[in-house]
Amino acid sequence: MQQFNQQLMDFLGASRTPYHAVAQMVERLEQAGFVGLQERDAWRFESGGRYFTTRNGSSIIAWVMPKAGRLEESGLRMVGAHTDSPCLKVKPAPELHRNGYLQLGVEVYGGALLNPWFDRDLSIAGRVSYRRTDGALEQMLLDFERPVAVIPSLAIHLDREVHTARTINAQTYLPVILGQAGEKLDFRALLKHELEAQGVSGIDQVLDYDLSLYDTQAPALLGLESEFLLSARLDNLLSCFIGLDALLGSNTDQGALLVCNDHEEVGSMSAAGAQGPMLAHVLERLLPEPEARQRMLARSMLISADNAHGVHPNFADRHDGNHGPLLNAGPVIKVNANQRYATTNETSSIFRDLAAQEEVPVQSFVVRTDMACGSTIGPITAAEIGVRALDIGVPQFAMHSIREMAGARDSWNLSRVLRRFYVQTSLGG
């Protein structure tokens, strides 16, 4: 478990954006012998072959072909997660010069908790598109790595009602300070300079970018017995890592698949999101004949892994009294009568049985009946491809904050259950 958590923290620290997360996953898959396939090429598969493909550089699907029999006879054991997290993104024309300071305008991505973004050492990372001096267009991942920005709080002396009445205006309160104004800032020129400083040559002009702010504080274990994990982007890179670790560690002979989609935090409606056609396109190429594909899906199951709300000791009244998951007390099955989660009594029973085989405890989460329930890629994927599905997750605190908190044992335990799932010969039904 200690080795697992160290690898997890290394992954979280390096995965500043969905692009960086997918790059990390590609590296691990290639090291394990998986073959990368380009969507524009013809695909050919071998029995027991291991493959992956990406879309937009921010979503990834990896899969293992069964070693014996055909997919329509064995089905697929599928795990799903998402690569994106709420954050602040740099606007297309971000330069601000006000009162002697250089600032960047930002846009809020997803349902971020905004207060924790103040007074943090922030850096910038993402993907940059540029034209080379020979006229070719290229893209490159960029990470400033060092702290370069901050959003200072307003002193309490100038905001006496900060504890009682203030709300955050995302347009006016969140522009970050980069430095003191000298010459006018040309942000694209700054990106060109930073890329060149990192060894990229032959750049004529930066054309565009998709860049996010992130907290430079590294992931850490916390607690008297190091029982807690703290990091940015636990929702939901934690599940991406767990799913990947389970796939690589299962050595399965069954048909197995991991899908990690971008854009879940903003509704999943994109070419690379769960409401888009990426997974369906891969399945169509695995089994082009529609009836065979439907037979395969009828023998398949998807486990949607996305973190759950642990019961906060200071806010226990925000939970249903019988459904308050505890950190380090096992993965959580998420249930909602209105189909905000994809769990059914059949799929939850299968998961409980898998967990029992690994001697891993299981918890349940149901939102209070007088509160709105969030959702995941589980119901979306189930509706898109017609597969039975289950929503589970590791319990955590501070979801959508700049720094989140989970139990150090829960991720390891969930990985063990998912490994068992990947090798399971029968899923019932």
From TrEMBL:
- Gene3D superfamilies named among the record's database cross-references: Aminopeptidase i, Domain 2, Zn peptidases
Highest taxon of the lineage: Bacteria
Q: Which cofactor does it need?
A: Zn(2+)
Spell out the SUPFAM superfamilies in the cross-references: Aminopeptidase/glucanase lid domain, Zn-dependent exopeptidases
Q: Does the keyword Metal-binding apply?
A: yes
Its EC number is 3.4.11.-
Q: Which NCBIfam families match?
A: PRK02813.1
Q: Which family does it belong to?
A: Belongs to the peptidase M18 family.
Name this protein carries in UniProt = M18 family aminopeptidase
Q: What is the lineage of its organism?
A: Bacteria, Pseudomonadati, Pseudomonadota, Gammaproteobacteria, Oceanospirillales
